[in-house]
Amino acid sequence: xxxxxxxxxxxxxxxxxxxxxxxxxxxxxxxxxxxxxxxxxxxxxxxxxxxxxxxxxxxxxxxxxxxxxxxxxxxxxxxxxxxxxxxxxxxxxxxxxxxxxxxxxxxxxxxxxxxxxxxxxxxxxxxxxxxxxxxxxxxxxxxxxxxxxxxxxxxxxxxxxxxxxxxxxxxxxxxxxxxxxxxxxxxxxxxxxxxxxxxxxxxxxxxxxxxxxxxxxxxxxxxxxxxxxxxxxxxxxxxxxxxxxxxxxxxxxxxxxxxxxxxxxxxxxxxxxxxxxxxxxxxxxxxxxxxxxxxxxxxxxxxxxxxxxxxxxxxxxxxxxxxxxxxxxxxxxxxxxxxxxxxxxxxxxxxxxxxxxxxxxxxxxxxxxxxxxxxxxxxxxxxxxxxxxxxxxxxxxxxxxxxxxxxxxxxxxxxxxxxxxxxxxxxxxxxxxxxxxxxxxxxxxxxxxxxxxxxxxxxxxxxxxxxxxxxxxxxxxxxxxxxxxxxxxxxxxxx
Length: 495
Fold this sequence. Notes:
CATH superfamily of the domain at 4-241: ATPase, nucleotide binding domain
Number of helices: 16
Shape: globular
Largest sheet: 7 strands, mixed
CATH topology of the domain at 4-241: Nucleotidyltransferase, domain 5
Helix content: 25-40%
Radius of gyration: 21 Å
Strand order of the largest sheet: 15-16-14-13-19-20-21
Low-confidence stretches: none
Structural class: alpha/beta
Distance between the termini: 61 Å
Strand content: 15-25%
């Protein structure tokens, strides 16, 4: 048996490659950041070629670091930022525009028009999603309408649309494969939630030509996809959106199990089993990673989570390194009455307000950098607590624990405050890079590297368990104050 599984983890701010062994341990990792483009307020773009260049470079680096040859790789898995939209020339493999990032708000007016026309109930029933610029479908429609000649070329099959999984698969296969998986496809506004196939009424509503769409496949399958690495074809057996991949990597494989990923944004998912659970509290119904029959989850999305730390570092210069923020936040005994609402690109679940903007409430003459840093970290927990409240109402059952992962999950202050707000234990695993781990597990299962999901569950280990310490009355009071601050940020950019 080949010795390793290679996971490509393409995120919003960096590209990473990781090698995993049969014990689910990280053998080697390589990471490179890439440029964030902000051409106008509310707009966020990436250079898809730079994404491929950084991802390819980390692949080469991790192989070299570990002294690994292509023959040592049993399979490759790709996990990715999900709704980010790429449109490229099928013949040349060249993007015809920058990728429009999931955070981008440029289609807010289009979404509002469709909502006002009464389309949202149909959209939600067919896709499990809401009409928000977050999702890929309206971004693709904008590209087709804004780039001269693009719509005609798409209708003729000359252009390929894809989320980042599709783009990387196309590039790493030398243009042989134009595919996506059910988890990524379920974030486009174009997939039928029940069938797992492209939905004709949604294609018609958004005027999307079928000829530009990728083929939809399971998240894990050895079905002929191959990655070209060092001149050798290696099985490419897993594609998965980053949040669904993290749910799998956290071994949340049974209905009622939930995780929260603290990355650039925060994304809470609860596994709901083989049937979709339609949210009544403005959460999303989405497809989980599927090895065969479709599996479902409900999801809440926070647009600015760990990115608030980047803002403190790069925008305000509060710290030189993100790792310094915890010390600054704990340099003051409390938040000093300050609340930061980081609605830099609008608000996600459960508000879905693309016109909200960031706000700082409760500032006094005594407010310091420490108070703002503490309130910024607390904002991540407040937003996540809103998600859990809605999720428990939808599921009709209390959550026993919340499994956490992602970069900000290593912040002990944040995790303790999260447990305090939620009133349930927050459990951090030994491996917090569960997005890449999930992709590795999905890839390895397809080729027999791991023989069952039971083997994966057995590998999950606890690093630390954070028990709630705040009284329920005090936690409720803090949530009421947070709600007041959020209300002041709503609709700011609506005009």
